[in-house]
Structures are given as structure tokens and as C-alpha cells.
Request: fold
Amino acid sequence: MSAATDGDDADPLLKVRGLKVHFPITQGILLQRTVGHVQAVDGVDLDVRRGQTLGLVGESGSGKSTLGRGILRLGVPLTAGTVEYDGVDIAGLKGERLRKQRSSMQMVFQDPMASLNPRQSVETLITEPLLAHGKPVNSDTVGRLLELVGLPRGAALRYPHEFSGGQRQRLGIARAVALEPALVIADEPVSALDVSVQAQVLNLLEELQERLGLTYVVIAHDLAVVRHVSDVVAVMYLGGIVEEADSDDLYQSPLHPYTRALMSAVPVPDPEVEDHRERILLHGDIPSPADPPAGCRFHTRCPYRQPTRCDDERPELRVLRPGHSAACHYAEQIARGDIEPADAAQMVGTS
Amino acid sequence: MTRPVGVRSEPLLEVEDLAVVFHGSRGDVEAVSEVSFSVRPGEHVALVGESGSGKSVTALAVMGLLPLRSTTVRGSIRYDGDELLDLDARSRRDLRGAEMAMIFQDPMTSLNPVVPIGVQIGEVLQRHKGLRKTEAREVSGDLLGRVGISDGKRRLKEYPHQLSGGMRQRVLIAIALACEPRLLIADEPTTALDVTIQAQILELLRELVSGTGTALVMITHDLGVVAGLCDEVHVMYSGRVVESAPRRSLFGEPRHPYTGGLLGSIPRLDSARGEPLTPIPGSPNDALPWTHSCAFAPRCGNRVDKCTVQTPALRGSEHVSRPGDEQALRCFNPLDTREAS
Amino acid sequence: MSIAAPTEPSGAGQPTPVADVAGESLLRGAWRRLRRSPLAIAGAAIVLVFVVVALAAPLLAPYEPASTQWAGLVTPQSVPGPATDHLLGLDSFGSDMLTQLIYGARQSLIVGVVSTVLGLSVGATLGLAAGGFGGKVDTIVMRLVDVLLSIPSLLLAVSVAAVIGQSQLSVMIAIGVAQVPVFARLLRGSMMLQSKSDYVLAADALGIRRRRIVMGHVLPNSMGPTIVQATLALATAIIEVAALSFLGLGDGDPAVAEWGRMLVAAQERFGNDPRLAVYPGVCIAITALGFTLFGEALREALDPRQRR
Reply:
């Protein structure tokens, strides 16, 4: 059971259960032996309700991008689990059936330059997927889609390299919505863009959601971006979801120690806030997903780590409040203040 | 924020009317012009801008790292009273590493992949401090400890690829700080890092430069990073400074429409959800030439007729709330400041 | 750099200005850059002269090819040098040097083009199969290519000549086969690289058919290095034809003028008449240089980093 959804909403558009993506690590030149696995995604449950935005936030190695691609079945073999889209399990789809399924679930990529074929004109870029799915294309199709994403109709005859980063991302979005999908997964849609341009693209995504009734999964490392666009936010760490909650709820009362640390690490462009807030500095680096720590995967860096359970028992994602769940054995005690961070040096107030 | 060294001391670095011209096959391109700023010992100054703003070029010009043949640097860069642009390449090289050091964005490509990190740190010590190999190794190990790499002595033998991104950035900081430089330039030092690692590195920088009187020039596109770290902020657009102010004034009452626009377009973690963002239209590519207009005019919400026919000059502002706070603005029609006391 | 017209500041839904340059595809851009590169023009000029001379040999040559009617003038000690009726003198068989050089160009062009086309078509097909299908097909094809690569091209030429006899055809096959691994690996390598790029993933995400992704996206973007290699291969082929002739593995018919064989014939008289070797040698060098220059310029023009 995913925790973020309550009983009253029984019909999510996307329902992921027990999803695992393990990549084999191979050695040898001729005879390749598998010597281990990168546990990129290791047991994820997710529900995405129609018309809503789920934000997936995490740092490198958290598996957020792999999860996005796993849901779309995009070059990522699923190790275990089910992906139910509109009531149908698509985890086992292959070949032509998978290809046909793609028109209903689309992706927006991080780097708009790299995700557009430099040799195709905008017109070809946009019409190609339509033709591949046998959808009607007329003289107005391209112009209408360009206008929808805020580009002039005249852009149809140009090539990707003639556009700025923000405009290219608009093209990527136009192409994704051309097929009239219900679900769009946006993987770091603004992180490659200039700061002043990011807001344009975020606003466009919101506007399109309203106009076209889209359901989004927005994947990003930037918690501020995710919080801004999402209804529900899931925080990932080393292949698993550690906390999932309504966006405001998560910001106001984070329950997982990792979420707290992550939130305190995001710089706010306001000296008043920066000077007076408390920072939780995490020790060390994010462990490798090829060799994740036993027990709670966060225990190696957790300031609230306890001698029992944390090292050897992997916490389940538990519903702690309606619509708010976290994977921490001691979330209640930490929230009540019963458990203090072990190492006071990790808490730093700004000078 | 209090700094151990008095704000009123003489500037360590004074950049005046700096211009950098690149000579390319398709003619000359003025990447930076009319850039002036100064940094006092112990002061933290930020150059903020997006791609193409000239912030990194300015840093490279100060370091003397621009290719001599294809660039012309005009204006004045005074370090501790000496005019750097008059020095020959050799003297500037002697300054680099010893007096002024730089940290780059990408910790992977800034380290030599086939040389152990201990050798890379030791090199600087041997070159500038004349230490012998064994001494250099000793000091290198201590330096790694100072930048938060435990068991520094043993790790000197490791190669860059054996370290994580955050660790590599720590090594780069160790190299930069090896000779206790008086000026440290950090060019997007945390952009390639994860958020929790970014927090560690920023905290480390803060720790290392405070108390030593090291002057820090922070180059970044991230206003959030600046807000907690820098005293003075210079916002650059298309090669020129458009607004300079102490951080509280800049964030509290931004006057240039570009600064205001940037602040309005960043989603903030602490802002109420659903509060719409007000983006700046267009992209940095849309800049007009400064020669007879304001480069930001095509994207500016406060644009008046004058903006597309005349170049706005950088003027000092009358609103000086505290002595020593230099404010400057390059705009014909600045944003209204809120009527605060 | 173009400057966009100022627009009213607006929300995300409003049109944003687009650069005012007419839509230009990558290839058109490459062509524009090529025309502006002095190296490309020099290379292209040499190549053009070479091709025209080769095609129009019967019109340009002052005499019939392989006509040894002046053999009587050649003595064991010396060969008559340049004169008004023989601008570059005679060769050691008593033929007109200029005529022989002009017909030699024709020979080099035929062998060069045919062998390169052969190497390119076989190599590119193998590369396409390996890069397009990947997996087992890739492993098998590439091991085959590795085997081919491990045989020295001269040994290959000797073997081919031994099997089908010493002829122009065997020269072309030998040179062509020697180029197969180069083209196969190059095309496969760039296709593998392109296959990993985001736009291929994006096409997959859009539900575009695999066949169309390979032929319409991956292949066109991988062609650049192969096209460049083909021009460079032409230069190599011309040198190799000469080398094979020099070793006596060339065309069996001694009457056919060929630069490499002219070099061989010049060997024994090099002390007295070095010009006999210099003329064909210079022809080989300049032609190879022309193709190389053009190939390098093409490489630069097609480089995506050069865009804009």
C-alpha cells in the first residue's frame, strides 16, 4: 500500500508496486560474468492520481531517473514489480504493444539540445511521432502545437540549434504533448536552463497541465522546484522512497531525518533566512547503490541514528499521518523531540 | 555578519573598468567591459550572472588565465597596490597559487586523472613554498585533514577517480589553500555537486576563509548560495555589471529589473505553494549590444524608450543605508524600492 | 549573432523571439563552412583537377597512351629530357611522359574510387548491421572484422592476386577489402555512440519504430566520420595502388600507364634521370594531399561543435 493515497481515491492513473531495477555489473571481455548488481531502484510503491503532479526528489544515486524510465519502460529492464497504467499492468509489455502504449505516456528530457535530433527540422520533429502512431497531421498541426508551447508558428522550418535553451525545452514539451498523452514524466525539466528561463518552463508546464488535464511526474534534484510544482512529493534515497507527503505538509513538518537534512541544505535566496536558520550537515558521501548499507540505507549518515534497528532492519514506508508516510523506525520520536541528533557538530547555525 | 578584519581596510583586489576582448575568426567579441569592483581582506564578494554574463571571464582575467594571443585585457587590475596587467607572464605565474588561487566548477576535469592527489597538492607546495618532497607530503596530509578528508596521509596515494565528487572538490580546495593565498576565487564551486554535499562544501569554505582574512570572490549563478555567504554582490548581465549592492540591500530591495526578475523567477523552498513565478521573458541570447542600448531591454518589464537607444551608465546610488556600503546601478528606470525606513 | 526584436514582457504562454536566421540544416551549414575554408578550397581544387584530367585524358594527352614509338631515342645511359614536342620528356620505355602521367591519373581514379566504394559499401553494411542490431550480431560481425584487421593489407593483396590472378580487379579488391574493417568499425562506433544519446531515447519514448530510429536518426547522425574517412581512404588507395604496382602486384598489363609502375621503372635510372621518378612521385603526393586536405576540411565542417 502506498501511503500517500487514502482509501477515498481508489483509481490512480499510475500505480507502481514493488518496483525494482537492478543493473548487473559485469566483468570480463569475452565471457562476461556478473559480479554484482547496482540496486538503482529497490522496491518502490507509488500512486499518481489523475490530474495531479507527483514530485520525485533525490540526489545522485537515489534512483529517481531510473524510476522514471522504469515506469516508462524506457531502456531500463525491470527486475521486479508491477507498473499499472490506467488499470493495466504494462511491466510485461514488449515490442509493438509497448510502442503503442507510448502514445499515452510521454517524457520531457533534461537536456533539450541532446534530446532533439540536430538534423531534423522542427516540423519533422513534431510530426514524426504523430505519423508513427498513425495520428492525423494537417497543415495546422505543427503551428497549433508551437503556439501551445509559446513559440511562433514560423519556428516550424528551423532547426534545433537555432533556438535558445528555453525554446528548445518548449520544443521538447510540444513533442511530448503532441501525442495527447495522459501522463508526462519530466526528468529534470529545468536544470539545464539558465536561471531566468527556468520559471518560464515551469509556468508552461503548469499551464499545459490545466489546459490539457495532464498528470505529471516531475523528477528533480532541486527541492524548491519540486515543491513548487508538485501536489505530492516523494523523497528518494539510494533506490527507495524515504518519505512521501503532500507538498506543503512535507515542507512544514518533514518526518524523515534525510528530508530534514535535504531541506536544510537548500540555500534560500534571502539573507534574513540564511543568517538565522539551522543547518543539518550530513557527514560523508552518498554510498554507492552497488553496495548499499544494510538496514536503513541512510543510517551511515543519519544524525539521529539509534543503536538498535537502524543498522540491521530496513524500515518500511509507514503511514504516520493521513497522507504522510516515512521510512524511519524512529520518525515519531524524532518528531516529538524525544531523540536528539547524536552529533551536535552536525547542527550548524550560520555565523 | 561580522568579519574579523575591519571593513575599512585597504582593498586587496581592485578591478577598474575591466574589458576583455576575444579575437576570433569572425571578428572581435567584447566579453566583458566596464567591470569594476574591489575586495578587501576578509571580505566575501559575489559575481552573479547567467551563462554569457562574463562572470567567469572576469575571474580568469584577474587570475591571468586568459589566452594571451587571442584576448586583449584592458583597464586595471590592482592586487595589493600592484598593477597586474603590467606584470609579465612569469611574475603572474608566481602570484598564482601563492597569492591568489582559484577553485573550478568541475572537480573531475580540474584534477589530473593519472597523478595521485598527494603529488598534485605537493606540487604547489614545492613550487611556491620551496618545500622538499617529504615535507610537502607531510603538509599535504595535514591539508587534507583541514578540508575534512579523514586519514589524509593514507589517501594521498589515491587517484582522482577513486574519490567522490565532493571529495574531489575538497582536494581542489586543499590545493587552492596550500599556500595560504590571500585571495581565493571560487568559480561555481558547488554547481556540479549534490545539495547535501554542496552544503558541506559551502560550510567548509566559510570555515576556511573566515578567521584567516582570506578574501573570497564567489562566482555563481545561484542567488541562494550568495545570500548566506557574501557581503557584496555584483550582478552581471551580458558582460557588464548592472547592479552592485551589499547583500541585504540587493536581496531586500533589488533595484535593477534584472535582479528583481531573477529573484522573482526562482521557486523558493519557503514560499507558499501555488504562488506563481514571474519569469523573465526571452533568454540571455536576446541581449542587445551595450554600445547604444541596455542589453537587458528586450526582456525588461520596466523598459522605457530611452533603453533601446542609449547606454545606461553605472551610477552610484543615493540610498546608502550604511557607511561603506557601495551601491551602483545601471538602469534608466529602476524598480521602486519599498518604502522602508 | 542575430538580435531578436523586443517583445512585450509576458508570461510563459506568449511567443518568445526566435533568432532571425533562416532555417539551416546541419548539412547546409557544413556546406557553407566548407566554402569558406581555404583548406577545403585548395583540396577541392586539386581533386577537381585530378578528376578532370583523369576523365578527359584522351582530349588532354598529346599522344596515344603507351605508344613506344620513340623507344629508339632511349639509350641505356639516358632518356631524352623535356623538349618542345615532349614537354616532360620521355619515359624509360620511350613513351611521352606527359601522356603517361595523364593516363596514369585515370588509372588511379578508377582504382581509387572502385576500391573505396567497395570497401565503403561492404564495411558500412557490416557496421550498420553491428550498430543497428547490436547484441549477438554485433559480436559476430565485429570479431569477423577483427580477423580481417589482423591481416596486413599487403599480405591480403598478395593473397587476392594469388587467387584471382594479377589484374586490375585484384588490386581493387585487395585495396577495398583492406578498407572494410576501417569503415565497419568507424560506422559501428559512431552508431553506438549516437544510440546512447538522448534524442534516440526520446525517439524511443515517443514510440517511433526501431527501424526508423536506426535508419532515420542514428545512421544520418553517424555518417559524418564515415564520409570523411571515405575521402581520406581515396588518398590512401591512390598511394596503395602505387605501392602494389611498385611491388609488382599491380595490373598485369604493362601497357597500362600507372604512376606506381612508372616509379618502379624509374628505379634503375634514378642516378642519371631522377625526373623519371620525380614526376609520378609528385603526382601521387599532390593527389593524395588534395584528398586529405578536402577530407580534413570536411571533418571540421561536419563537426557539430563548429555550428554557428
Summary: The longest helix of chain A spans residues 195-212.
